[in-house]
Amino acid sequence: MSRPPAAASPAAAMLEVRDLHTRYGRVEALSGIDLRVPEGQIVSVIGANGAGKSTLLNSIMGVLPSSGEVLYRGESLRGVPLEARVAQGIGLVPERRDLFSSMTVADNLHLGAYSRRRLPWKADLDEVYARFPRLLERRKQLAGTLSGGEQQMLAIGRALMGRPKLLLLDEPSLGLAPLIVRDILKIVQGLQQSGVTVLLVEQNARASLAISDYAYVLETGQVGLSGPAGELARDERLSASYLGG
Ligand code: ATP
């Protein structure tokens, strides 16, 4: 049974998206998205290939132009450039991970601190290495030689160097073996436990619902279903198309 939201003290919204529209030329990829990410929660967006999940994260981040409202901690992000969004505490881990494959693990992490004015970052680097001992072991190795799971850890670690309060994660399980997917999702839970709010985009519906508080199902640019993650995991409409029947 899901608990009704506590009327007296609902968690403040870290992120609110209202009537968001994003176009690629004449094609509308997002057609009026409304969603809310309460502070301290993991909210997932699930949906098939091409549903608009990456477009949604890139629109929130300001990488793609869009219309509608995006509110971060109650303030509109309209006109706020990408670097300023990062400086305010929004981090994006993109789907293709965008690592510099011919640079070392350590250098990729240093680049994560680049956009931040607040120095020094040594303590943050130590924190990332404490969270991901594998990255410490491989700090001198070229990023391109890491396994898929390690690359995902590096991409998350690099985003953590920006000290995000809100982390947007684009399909962190993409291309990973099931056991590694489990490790990565445990890492995402660990981020939540250390106070990071997470908006998680996934095709892997069952695994992402298992760690989420709330979820939205995106269907061709619109929210089809939404609800507490535990309820959606039992929803027949979802199980037919996304949870393997
Ligand atoms: P996937 O899991 O395959 O990445 P997705 O849910 O993230 O899918 P998007 O990548 O956001 O979906 O794509 C949403 C729609 O927008 C798709 O129809 C896609 O073909 C289209 N689209 C995405 N990027 C572009 C682009 N650069 N130019 C034109 N159309 C695009």
Overview of the structural elements:
The protein is α/β, with parallel strands linked by helices. The protein has a domain at 11-89 and 200-245: Rossmann fold. Helix content is 36%, strand content 27%. The protein is built from ten helices and ten strands. It has helices at residues 53-61, 82-87, 105-114, 122-131, 133-137, 148-160, 178-193, 205-211, 229-233, 236-241, and strands at 13-24, 27-38, 42-46, 67-72, 75-76, 90-93, 166-170, 197-202, 214-219, 222-228. Helix 3 (105-114) packs parallel to helix 6 (148-160). The longest helix is centred in the C-terminal third of the chain and has 16 residues, at 178-193. The site of adenosine-5'-triphosphate (ATP) has 13 residues, from strand 2 and helix 1. Adenosine-5'-triphosphate is lined by residues 24, 27, 29, 47, 49-55, 95, 203.
